[in-house]
UniProtKB/TrEMBL annotation:
Pfam family of the protein (one): DO-GTPase2
Protein name stated in the entry: Double-GTPase 2 domain-containing protein
SUPFAM superfamilies: P-loop containing nucleoside triphosphate hydrolases (SSF52540)
Species the sequence originates in: Ornithinimicrobium cerasi
Domain of life: Bacteria
Listed InterPro entries: DO-GTPase2, P-loop_NTPase
């Protein structure tokens, strides 16, 4: 019996205690369980750990029906694994007709307390290192800026922002020696660091450009210092985006005695950011020759299946179907040709879908249609001034 094929994308969420990580995760998962969303989506979101799924759904329903905010978790270093299973007629089709059966999103939640206070002893210090190692494979990292603390520090926002960034930077410096073996830079590491405004509903006059300008004006130098620290951990540090992408996140609209879970902002961009944003950025870096062959092989390791899903054929897929060593060799001689082909495949996917509208019921169940929908979601997020993507 053929094995199930899954595209696995990782996202790491960093934020201080109380910055809204648990609420955000519960809003993400709970909203996907709403009957209207199950009906309209081309996929179902399923928690691989049923207990985690029940707990997150319970949190969401508590907000929705009882205006109860989920309890904060302390020192809980947890990874959540969600499967996006595609629905429809193609579920019973032979496996070879589909590039994928599912997409897996792995969500790493890093305890905020480790930004704000020292560990209690060697055992906790080791757990902190192991936790960070566990999220090194993340494709995207979200660094949360707490909207409540911006409100509390109105007019002096730099006090809070500088503290946030310096705590995070210092935490990384403390981990550096434990993360780097023989001082060798890491090939696998989160390379896209998105700055996210959590609790954005508390700042209704902010769009993403207002937020971006505030952060850069107040703590631009601190972002540069953070990038320097992160760059010191990775091979090919030119292939690193830190503080170049910004997003607004609001898990619900909170008011006295009510939580309106339908009034979400940015939650629906989490899947697109995790699944599509890295692929687009990695292709751009490869095209600009900002990465070594080893890093290019790692960054584009999922390109075969994504390119296959969106219709990239010929030499592109052929170059990526071998072992990682063969991939690196192929990339070494044809990187400048490979990356534009992949990028063109992305750009042309929409046209291909439009030309086959009669097959929409079938296409809807395909990974290609889902990825194209995610790309459209990112574009719409920018148009609505919820998302600002790097132009570099």
């Amino acid at each position: 019996m053929p094995r199930s094929r899954v595209l696995e994308q990782h996202i790491a969420v960093f934020g201080e205690s109380g910055s809204g990580k648990t609420v955000m995760l519960s809003s993400f998962y709970g909203s996907e369980q709403e009957p209207q969303n199950i009906k309209k989506n081309s996929f179902n979101v399923v928690a691989e750990n049923a207990g985690q799924g029940t707990h997150l759904h319970q949190n969401y329903l508590g907000m929705k029906n009882s205006a109860t905010v989920p309890a904060q978790t302390r020192f809980a270093a947890t990874s959540y694994r969600f499967l996006l299973r595609f629905k429809g007629k193609t579920e019973n089709a032979p496996l070879k007709r589909k590039p994928f059966d599912a997409v897996r999103l792995v969500w790493h939640d890093y305890p905020g307390e480790w930004f704000e206070q020292d560990v209690s002893g060697p055992e906790e210090a080791q757990r902190r290192v192991e936790t960070f190692r566990g999220l090194l494979g993340s494709h995207v990292a979200l660094l949360l800026v707490d909207g409540q603390k911006l409100v509390d520090n109105a007019g002096e926002e730099e006090r809070y922002l500088k503290s946030l960034l310096s705590n995070f930077r210092n935490s990384l410096l403390l981990l550096k020696d434990d993360l780097l073996e023989d001082d060798k830079p890491l090939v696998t590491f989160p390379r896209i660091w998105v700055i996210a405004l959590s609790k954005a509903d508390l700042l209704p006059d902010f769009d993403v450009h207002t937020f971006k300008e505030l952060v850069i004006e107040k703590v631009g130098d601190d972002i540069v210092e953070l990038r320097t620290v992160l760059g010191g951990l990775v091979e090919s540090d030119d292939a690193l985006s830190v503080g170049e992408d910004f997003v607004l996140i609001s898990s619900a609209k909170f008011s006295t005695g009510a939580i309106e879970v339908a009034q979400r902002v940015g939650i629906d961009l989490i899947l697109p950011m995790a699944a599509v944003l890295p692929f687009e950025r990695h292709v751009r870096w490869a095209q600009a020759e900002k990465v070594s062959k080893k890093v290019a092989s790692e960054l584009l390791s999922g390109a075969e299946v994504i390119a296959s899903a969106i219709g990239a054929v010929g030499g592109v897929v052929a170059a990526l179907t071998g072992s990682k060593n063969k991939v690196a060799e192929a990339l070494g001689g044809a990187l400048s040709r490979l990356a534009p082909n992949l990028e063109e495949a992305l750009k042309s996917a929409g046209t291909k879908f439009e030309a086959a509208e009669k097959a929409a019921a079938t296409k809807q169940q395909n990974l290609a249609a889902t990825l194209e929908g995610f790309r459209n979601d990112l574009d719409a997020g920018e148009e609505k001034a919820i998302l600002a993507r790097s132009v570099g």
